[in-house]
Amino acid sequence: MVMPASATVPMRELVQQMDWSRTPLGAMALWPQSLQTLAELCLASRFPSVIFWGDERVQLYNDAYRVILGAKHPAALGQRAADCWSEIWHLIRDMMASVFDSGEAVWVEASPFSVERNGYLEEAYFTFSYTPARAEGGAVGGIFETVAEVTEQVISHRRLAALRELGEQLAAPGFDEACVQAATVLSHHQHDLPFVLFYLLSEDGQTARLAAQANMVAGAAGAPLEIPLDGADGWAPGVVLQGGQVLVRRDLFERFGHLPGGPWPESTTTAAILPLVRAGAGLPYGLLIAGISPRRALDESYMDFLRLTAQHLSRVLGNVDAYQHERRRAEQLAVLDRAKTTFFNNVSHEFRTPLTLILGHVESALSEPGGTLDGDHLQATHRSAVRLLSLVNSLLDFARIESGRLQGRFAPTDLASLTTGLAGSFQSLLEQAGLRLVVDCPALPEPLYVDAALWEKIVLNLLSNAFKFTWQGEIGVRLRWLGQGAELAVWDTGCGIPAAELPRMFERFHRVEGTRGRSFEGSGIGLSLVQEFVALHGGRVTVDSVEGQGSRFKVFLPSGRAHLAATQCQDEPLIAASDGKQAYLLHAATWLGQPAGGQAAVAALPTEAAPSHMARILVVDDNLDMRNYLSGILSAHWQISLAVDGEDALTQALAAPPDMVVSDVMMPRLDGVGLLRALRRASATAQIPVLLLSARAGEEPMLEGIDTGADDYMVKPFSTRELLARVRTHLGMAQRRRQWARELEGVNAELESFSYSVSHDLRAPLRSIDGFSRALLSHAGDKLDAQEQHYLARVRTAAQQMGQLIDDLLNLARITRQHVHREQVDLAAVATRLLALLAERDPTRQVATTLAGSLPVQADARLVGILMENLLGNAWKFTARQQAALIEVGSTLRDGRAAFYVRDNGAGFDMRYASKLFSPFHRLHDDSEFSGTGIGLSIVQRIVTRHEGRVWAEATPGQGACFYFTLEAAA
Amino acid sequence: MSNEQIILLVEDSDADAELTAMAFQEARIGNPILRMRNGLAALDYLFAQGAHAGRDVTDIPAVVLLDLNLPLMSGLEVLRAIRGDTRIRHLPVIVLTSSNEDKDRLEAYDHFANSYVQKPVDYDQFVQASRQLGLYWLVLNRPAPRRDV
Fold first, then answer.
1. Looking at the predicted complex, does its ipTM rise above 0.85?
2. A767–B19 C-beta distance less than 8 A
3. Cβ of A803 and B69 within 8 Å?
4. pLDDT in tens, A267-309
């Protein structure tokens, strides 16, 4: 850029060279002394200063002032102020005039002016003073202005304020919220940021989504809701994301047309796109697109401001990121923690069952004189001990894996013969269970490096799992050579795995709930151990399954030894010397004798041998040994039936209710608590005492047991004597309860026959009293004087009242007996019908009614009909003396439940008597006022009570009463 | 109005029988009322046997007013016997009783009672009920035609 000569020439020379005769000031030589002195002062000053002389305000200025003039120099010299400052003339004209008129100086600080000195309107701020300069005559001849530009200070100050406001918000719950908060703050800083857009990158990094905006409408031109990151159209911010650089676009008008210019009418044509950088590495969180003020140049300090804004937001987003990461971690830990708790619960159950059996058998042997353990008891004890051992081994394996200390000892192994041997050991067990075993393990072309003990656990785990969940068909084991290694497949035709569970099958502690297995036993670590063992071999395990058709587990082991740590390999074949098979088989064998799906009951001890008057106890446990042990203890005193799980027990109990149920808690299909609830629901079994046996110790399950209605609860291992004592107690109590129930039934029957005879025998004489009194009146009426006729009328009234009383009493009794049959009833419709009936019976009365549109409720239609009849009848009766009688029926909320009400503006009553209101025969008004037997509200209360609801009243004497009622149990 | 046809009242209580007669009279029902003290006597009359041997069995009452609580033989048994005999099974039988028990009502209709009326305690209401009964069963209602035996 070539600077014009005038740009460098000192003002003193320019003033000298200027032909002043062509200005209103005239030739310099002719200037008054005052002007000459002033001009000299101005030119000599280093402070930006200018003289506006005369009525025309002709300008003369010094070198320092040229910065303020910008491109206006040199034309401004000798120019009239009105021409030079046309864009702000309206602001300064009057100020100048006042200086001329008053002769007093003016001082203006940081005044905003948009000046056009660099080819565009520029936002600028000046502090200046107008000093009057006297001419020779003493009048003001001109203005001497000293001025300082404070644009930089004002704008820096403003930007700092914006950054400080932004800094006050440091945390947000999410990325979007952080952007919205920042946009809200920045929307107040339109001078520096005519508009702001925040875009967040999508997960795949392909697009950016508009998260927040300031001074722009989301979705409008320039603010699309989503922008692609590649391509050349629109913002095309690709380079910002890759390079982390700031991109300045100066062609916004061409790209988007008009964009808001903040406080200025001009369009914003320039914007900076800045990355919201993620600490560390990776793609940025998103983009900040900032519009650049059309009246400011995008200089270095402007850029710094934008960078600081972006940095700040990056930091906030970083905080959000860290916070969310923390929360996810905490959630994962919580999940793991829960899983571990479940695991320990299960494991404690697993331990307690064999321990109970061992202790039970051993203690009973010790109490015998010989002190020996033999036969079935010895075998059961052995099985339990072996089970404990294998549990301990699994736990140790698990602990080793958890701490990373499990190492294999890999040796070249003939996998086919090892696998065939392992599978074969299940042959006889499967035969007993009626299952087919298919073993297809042809010799492999080369030995594989395998830890035989681990391989044994892999195969046995998969096989016993298959056995556990397969009730019919076959279980297969197949080995195949796949070139790079061998694949073992173990399949079954069992109950399969729900698709949703498949991805979680190898997770630690995960158990599929509610499957039809032979046993509920299991700690939930078997398959995760399989996976760990396979991983240790450098292999992988997968599962596919169709629910109801079967499952197939596949294990792939790579050939060779390159994938294994050299230190863990040896080249001599190892002879596996493990007796692990025995534990698996012994344990799996205890699952035999469970019915397929539980339909068939287990053959119980010969019950015909027991005398029929003996109480019968249903023993429920999914563990065969435990079942045998319990029936062994209990059969000495009572008849025993056996069930293998809750479902089986429920079927049996409903078919033939036992006298007591002794049940395990953790069982497949239906657990002990579920069984208990189901028994309590059915009327035939609701009263049966239930004793739960649990292996889960602690207070909480104890309460759980009592809460669900268990009569008692014992924790394994338990003492035989205590179990017997508790069973005896509960049987005795149940017997007494039954006896009481029978007695109660007897009393009830008596009461019923009593009320029946009341209905007949009391009414008949009443009829005679009334009828013959009436006959007497009509036959001998003329012979009786008024007093005697009055006496007879009294007799009749009394008889009729007593008749009514008897009817009401019988109604009350009937309602107490009646079964409540709930159905959908609209109380508003009932009220409408009843009120119409009342109006028909009593056509002289004028009663206004206000009814809710509909009042649906689940209730016994007949009973609520009687209820409403009584309440509306009362309301009708007690408003008889009212000029403008009003009856309202509606509903309101009380404690979260619908409470219905019948309100009247009648006689009301004193709330002191509210408590007596609902007792039978209690009346608050004497007969001369309002007639009645005092039974109506007792009937209302009985009906409400039968519906498990509540009834209450509010009233004021002389102003009316309101009766509220609910028809369901309180929340 | 068939003045000739009788009303058979089966009622053990003298007072009730008298009241009923009074009420019917007051309700201006002219048919003669024949009262039986128990179910056996009523059946003897209806089947023309025992004390009533030789009576024309096809000459049936206009209506039977039957109490349920009867000595020797309950009202329901009487009702069952009537419905079990083809000659008289169409006979209109009104159960007239003190009881309003569901059980009684159900049993009466189970045995094909034509109507069930509770005797009101209030004599005036009883007269009113009698008048309506008479109007319906003796005037409006058309009995089954006589069966050729």
1. no
2. yes
3. no
4. 999 999 999 888 776 788 889 999 999 999 899 999 999 999 9
